[in-house]
Amino acid sequence: MKLSISSTFDAGNIEVVNAENLEDIQLKIRKDSNSDFLQWFYFRVQGAKSQSCNFKLLNAADAAYPEGWDNYQARASYDREHWFQIQTTYLDGVLSMEMTPEFDSVYIAYFAPFSYERHLDLINEAQQSPLCTLQSIGETTQGRPIDFLKIGDDDDSKKKLWVIARQHPGETMAEWFMYGLIDRLLDQEDPVSTTLLKEANFYLVPNMNVDGSILGNLRVNALGINLNREWAEPSIEKSPEVYYVKEKMKEIGMDFCLDVHGDEGLPYNFISGIEGIPSYNDTLDQLCKSFIQNWKIVSPDMQDKFGYPKNERGKANLQICSKNLGEEFKCLSQTLEMPFKQNANLPDEVFGWSSERSIKLGASFLDTMLRMVNDL
């Protein structure tokens, strides 16, 4: 059977240079739409059962974050449900992935994908709960609905908690996180969820960048726009995903926001805060510290030793989502970063940081919020 490599499916991304020699299968990552960013890859291999293969990404050095390849292991799956790490090395600008497939068809990806079909399943199952309302609050540049979930009631006196995810479409762990959060929040037999919903309503956007997700992009929407740099002046023409979500935020109000991401380089979960916004004060400082300390207590997967440098007061980039919203709504607004690699503090040699761990972290977020919701 002749070797076949394809990526013409939801979120697929690869270019085949030469696949004649199984020990030297030469590939390239396709650039994001209308952009020079590249790093996300996802492809299917057929016809290599029981044969040793070496897949080489020749342009890995051109990735948006080449440091992300150090100590990184690619993921593979036979059923697109269970993803495991495969031997991966980065040398002289080439990322090499080695495996001997056990079956005729195997998928290889940068991280466990979260497909658009799975996204639709997530929101359509959620809307069937009496606690949840699903709305389309606008359309992407390619005409897809921007899905918005409200979980709770219409009591305006309750805290207004926002969680958005996947502004950068290749950071699929962000929507796995949302899956875990939503599944637990809608469990009416979960005492944490039911108690939390007595104090707060949740407003959720599980996937901010549906077009980019389907197109197999790492970082941008269909027009090549990095949504996480659009929050100061979003436009219907270039960044409707941000424009419509921010308009909804203004309509509803906000007491807290979490923007969920993945980080290519650091092998840890961490929070990027709002220390640099002009209105940062002692109250926000205490809330920032309380948030991470509470999360560390309920989930050993969280830490605060490693992360991004904190901005000096007044030096934050207010084009970035969490900074912009923290300043505009004068509230606790944080960015969560999860790893593409391992959680080096609690490594898993078979699966690395995984969709399953992302789901559990999403569920643990509710314990965190219950501990501090009345302080927001």
How would you characterize the overall build of this protein?
There is one protein chain. The protein is 26% helix and 24% strand. The longest helix has 18 residues. 48% of the residues are buried. The model has no long low-confidence stretch (mean pLDDT 97). It is an alpha+beta fold. The termini are far apart. It is built from eight helices and 17 strands. A seven-stranded mixed β-sheet has the order 11-12-14-13-15-17-16, sandwiched between helices.
Unreliable segments of 5+ consecutive residues: none
Distance between the termini: 61 Å
Number of helices: 8
Q: What is the residue-mean pLDDT, rounded to a whole number? A: 97
Structural class: alpha+beta
Basic shape: globular
SSE order: EEEEEEEEEEHEEEHHEHHEEHHEH
Strand content: 15-25%
> What's the β-strand tally?
17
Radius of gyration: 21 Å
Primary descriptors:
single chain, 376 residues, alpha+beta, seven-stranded mixed sheet, five-stranded antiparallel sheet, 26% helix
Write the layout of secondary structure elements.
Layout: E1 4-6, E2 15-18, E3 25-28, E4 42-46, E5 53-57, E6 75-77, E7 84-85, E8 87-91, E9 94-99, E10 105-109, H1 116-126, E11 132-139, E12 145-151, E13 159-165, H2 173-185, H3 191-199, E14 200-205, H4 210-215, H5 240-252, E15 256-263, E16 270-272, H6 282-298, H7 321-329, E17 332-339, H8 355-372
Parallel strand pairs: 3-5, 13-14, 13-15, 15-17
Antiparallel strand pairs: 1-4, 2-3, 4-10, 5-9, 6-7, 6-10, 8-9, 11-12, 12-14, 16-17
Helix pairs in contact: 2-8, 3-8, 6-8
